[in-house]
């Protein structure tokens, strides 16, 4: 299986306080699940708080398109 690593969740902190789910897409990022969003691509996200507070997670070594039980595209 060829490897094509990418991060499933990428986002900046929203201005609204409290807990925020990564199930639905938001303008500042979330559970993107886009395998083409890998090394060499550019993603623009709005910065809503000082310092952006960028988070990256749910990393994959390889994956097909979409997700079976989540809201990723």
Short description:
The chain is built from no helices and three strands.
Would you kindly provide a written description of the structure presented here, covering whatever features stand out?
By secondary structure, the chain is mainly beta. It has one domain (1-14, 23-62): Sandwich (Jelly Rolls), CATH 2.60.120. It contains no helices and 3 strands. A 3-stranded antiparallel sheet has the order 2-1-3, with no helix packed on it. It is globular and about 40 Å long. It starts with 5 loop residues before the first strand and ends in a 13-residue tail after the last strand.
Secondary structure layout:
Elements: E1 6-11, E2 29-31, E3 55-60
Antiparallel strand pairs: 1-2, 1-3
pLDDT average, as an integer?
82
Low-confidence stretches: none
**Whole-Å distance between the termini?**
22 Å
Tell me the series of helices and strands, N- to C-terminal. EEE
The CATH class assignment is Mainly Beta
Radius of gyration using CA atoms only:
13 Å
Instruction: Give the CATH superfamily.
Output: Acetamidase/Formamidase-like domains
Overall number of strands: 3
CATH topology: Jelly Rolls
């Amino acid at each position: 299986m060829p490897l094509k690593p990418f991060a499933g969740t990428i986002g900046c902190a929203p201005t609204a306080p409290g807990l925020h789910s990564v199930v639905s897409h938001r303008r500042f990022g979330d559970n993107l699940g886009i395998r083409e969003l890998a090394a060499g691509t550019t993603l623009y996200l709005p910065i809503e708080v000082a310092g952006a507070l960028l988070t990256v997670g749910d990393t994959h070594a390889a994956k097909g398109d979409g997700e079976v039980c989540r809201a990723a595209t």
